[in-house]
Structure formats: C-alpha cells, structure tokens
Amino acid sequence: GGHIILSRKPALISSMENEHVVKSFSDIQPGLLLTGFVRNIMSYGVFVEFPYGLTGLAPKSAMSDKFVTDTKDHFVVGQTVLAKVTSVDEEKQRTLLSLKMSECSVESVPESFGLLQQYFNELQEIMSFMSNRDDTSVAKKLSKLKVGQRVELVVTEVKADGSAVFSAPCVSDLTVIAIHSQLGGKSILEGQKAKAVVLCVDLLKSKIYVSLREELLSLKAKKLILNSQHEAVVQH
Could you check whether 10-108 and 138-218 share the same CATH topology? Predict the structure, then answer.
C-alpha cells in the first residue's frame, strides 16, 4: 500500500500556512527559495523533498560554500533545509538546487528572524520528543543538555588541528568537541580536567560543541524581557 509522511517541523508547517510552497512542477521557477527536508544523501549530492511530494537535487558542488569531500559530513536525512532553485528541466521533470548559505540567505531582516524562530521552535519540538521517549540512551542525555550549561569534562584527545575531544559521566556515549578557537588559548593535555560551557547541541549527529573560553565561563545568566533588544556574537 501507499505511505503517508507526516511532519511536525515548524518550518514546513509555516511554509504551508503562508502558502510559500509549490504545488506542482509547473510552479517551480529558478530563483525560488523553498523550505524542505533532506530525503536522501548520495555521493554525488543531496535530494531534497518539498511539500506536495516535489523533489530536487543539490549536486555536490552546490551543497556548501566550503569544499565538500564527503556529502554525509554536511547533512543528515530528515534535516530541514532552505534551498534555492537554480535550474528546471521541464522535459526531464528535474529540478536542480543550491544549498549554499551564500545563495540561500534571506535579505529581509524580519524574514531572517522568522527563520531563526522556526529553527528554535523545531529544536524545542525535537528535544521535547526525545525527552518523552522511554529509552535512557543517547537521546535522553542530549535532551537534557542546554546551551549555556556549565559542564566538567576530561580531555580524551588533542587533535592535530588544535581541537580537543572530551568525556564525562553526563555526556558518556556522546562526542564532545571544542574547536581550537574555543580553547581560549589554553594548553591542554590528555587526562586533564576542564570546565566548559555548552555552545551547541547537535541532536542529529549526537555531538556537543563546548567552549573553554573564560569570558564565556564567567558570564552570568540574564533575565530577558519580551521584545527587549540585545547585542550578540555568533560563537558556533
């Protein structure tokens, strides 16, 4: 029999509610920015599916602004993406896409904030789903970690590129990484204990990115007021 795919992704729901979708192949035009999800990852590119079952291919050369060696290192199946239509072949019913950030960026500030809000909503949905599952494995541990949380770690490996890998009881079975710029100029050795702050929880890849920088460790949590404005620095 047939299969019905359901989605609770806020980005997809929003695009449907705002009718920012294409319902047939004839609606697809070069230059369109469309929200979809990664359906399949091949060695030559990524297939993206959009609402109403339409699909397109982002070739390896159009997947990222950075050089792509292994396509599986950049995306995972099910990941929400914003794609730009670059080419439409009506005869073969094929659509080529770009997933490069430089080509898929949104110039409108309100729309950019809207996409960011959708990301946080989707992240919250995923974490809520994972925390309500019965198993106590990796999913449970990931759902309990929060950005800004302080953790005590042990250095397990210092890599050639200057990044470091850590372990701790609270993050066992997870990959915990601090890239070189987030070590704060500290010289660390394997087996050494270190205090860190969580920068990013990658739920799809089960990776935790942390920072050992003192200016981040010393920050105190602020009580935010709705609609208040703040300056921010991207750390990851």
Answer: yes
What tens digit of pLDDT does each residue of 82-120 get? Answer: 899 999 998 888 999 999 988 877 665 555 556 666 666
CA distance 97 to 66: 16
pLDDT in tens, 145-204: 788 889 999 999 999 888 999 988 777 777 899 999 899 888 889 999 999 999 888 776
> Nearest to residue 58, comparing CAs of 70, 45, 71, 44?
45
Would you kindly state where each structural domain of the chain is located, as residue ranges? Answer: 10-108, 138-218
CATH of domain 10-108: 2.40.50.140
CA distances from 147 to 69, 137, 217, 221 (A): 29, 20, 12, 11
* Cβ-contact 38, 46 below 8 angstroms: yes
What pTM was estimated for this model as a whole? 0.56
Q: Put residue 93 in one of left, alpha, beta given phi > 0 → left and psi -120 to 50 → alpha.
A: left
Q: 138-218 domain in CATH 3.10.129.10? A: no
Give the number of other Cβ atoms within 10 Å of residue 203's Cβ. Answer: 19
